């Protein structure tokens, strides 16, 4: 007996679109070949080659773990698109899409933490070590992973194996009501895009304003690197969220008609391609790191990635700022000591001059 169809016809039909299927499979194959070994190399560089694990290094490590895990799932989806049917069972259908959402949430939340850390380092450089201590950062990272795991539960609830129009099993959304569509995709939009990007934009606006107000206007290499990561994530995930909004609009459309059919056609034929494009963001970061660390390659060899993370960023800038402040304080102390010595010499000279008449009187 065939499994019951959902009360709303929300079949994506991605495996029935030859153009979308072939393009999606090609993109995912290239993404896997480039992104999976690239992120593994980043993880190895941080764990085996980095001399110290700063805040930036820990965030980069977790971002590489999230991206690498997402890259590791791509072969399943390549097989799905090529075979045009789901052969991995109902449990894997739910688990794989759940893990995809977890790593998507984790990636953007980690990028948001990078922006917040830079904001704190620029505005309060003397207190950044207290606010962002190693134990505090590890706790924040643990909480972040727990939150994204909980927020991704709808991917398990609203995903199931169904009997497609061509008689084969497909792993597709299982929405029983239009409100399910709104809940799932609006949650993805708010948690995975709107909130983190508002925080990121506000953080960089505050950073730029502060840098313009100070005499310290030297460009920090990691600022460009992190900004490139932010823009790359936005570029590749924006089409995915736009298609989600098209599907939400379709689900909320009051009555059947030409407009509703057009909306459905748009998200049905675009889902496979936009989802595959979203995966590109996870393989783009190793490429960005490579170009950012070109100056380290000849000197450091395979350790160039670790030296890039150690030698750039506001970690070093903040450390230099604190060192400069400490040196200033040390200079002040030395000056005070010199002044005290001068005073002591003056007092000794005065006492000697005052004692000479008494000695002559004897």
From TrEMBL:
Residues 38-289 form the G-protein coupled receptors family 1 profile domain. Pfam families: 7tm_1. It comes from the Eukaryota. One of its GO terms (cellular component) is plasma membrane. InterPro entries: Formyl_rcpt-rel (IPR000826), GPCR_Rhodpsn (IPR000276), GPCR_Rhodpsn_7TM (IPR017452), Leukotriene_B4_rcpt (IPR003981). The keyword rRNA-binding does not apply. GO terms for molecular function: complement receptor activity; leukotriene receptor activity. The chain crosses the membrane at residues 25-47, 59-83, 95-124, 136-158, 185-205, 225-253, 273-292. This is G-protein coupled receptors family 1 profile domain-containing protein. It comes from Zoarces viviparus. Its main location: membrane. Residues 327-347 have a biased composition (Basic and acidic residues). GO terms for biological process: inflammatory response; phospholipase C-activating G protein-coupled receptor signaling pathway; positive regulation of cytosolic calcium ion concentration. Residues 348-362 have a biased composition (Polar residues). Residues 317-362 are annotated as: Disordered. PANTHER family: CHEMOTACTIC RECEPTOR, G-PROTEIN COUPLED RECEPTORS FAMILY 1 PROFILE DOMAIN-CONTAINING PROTEIN-RELATED.
């Amino acid at each position: 007996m065939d499994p019951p169809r959902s009360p709303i016809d929300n079949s994506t039909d991605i495996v029935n679109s030859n153009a979308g299927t072939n393009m999606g499979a090609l993109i995912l194959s290239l993404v896997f070949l480039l992104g999976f070994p690239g992120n593994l190399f980043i993880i190895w560089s941080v764990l085996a080659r980095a001399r110290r694990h700063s805040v930036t290094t820990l965030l980069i490590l977790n971002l590489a773990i999230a991206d690498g895990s997402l890259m590791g799932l791509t072969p399943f989806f390549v097989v799905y698109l090529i075979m045009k049917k789901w052969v991995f069972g109902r449990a894997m259908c739910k688990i794989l899409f759940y893990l995809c959402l977890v790593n998507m949430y984790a990636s953007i939340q980690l990028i948001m933490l990078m922006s917040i850390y830079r904001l704190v380092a620029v505005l309060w450089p003397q207190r950044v070590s207290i606010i962002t201590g190693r134990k505090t950062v590890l706790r924040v990272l643990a909480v972040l992973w727990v939150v994204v795991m909980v927020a991704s539960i709808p991917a398990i609830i609203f995903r199931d194996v169904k009997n497609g129009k061509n008689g084969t099993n497909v792993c597709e959304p299982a929405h029983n009501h239009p409100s399910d569509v709104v809940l799932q995709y609006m949650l993805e939009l708010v948690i995975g895009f709107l909130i983190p990007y508002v925080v990121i934009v506000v953080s960089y606006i505050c950073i730029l304003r502060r840098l313009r107000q100070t005499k310290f206007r030297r460009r920090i290499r990691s600022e460009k690197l992190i900004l490139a990561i932010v823009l790359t994530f936005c570029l590749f995930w924006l089409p995915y969220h736009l298609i989600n909004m098209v599907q939400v609009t379709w689900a909320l459309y009051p009555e059947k008609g030409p407009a509703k059919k057009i909306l459905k056609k748009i998200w049905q034929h675009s889902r496979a391609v936009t989802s595959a494009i979203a995966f590109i963001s996870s393989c783009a970061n190793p490429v960005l790191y490579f170009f950012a660390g070109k100056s380290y390659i000849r000197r450091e060899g395979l350790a160039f990635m670790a030296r890039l993370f150690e030698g750039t960023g506001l970690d070093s800038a903040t450390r230099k700022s604190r060192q400069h402040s400490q040196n200033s304080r040390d200079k002040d102390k030395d000056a005070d000591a010199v002044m005290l010595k001068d005073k002591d010499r003056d007092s000794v000279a005065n006492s000697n001059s005052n004692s000479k008449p008494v000695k002559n009187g004897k």
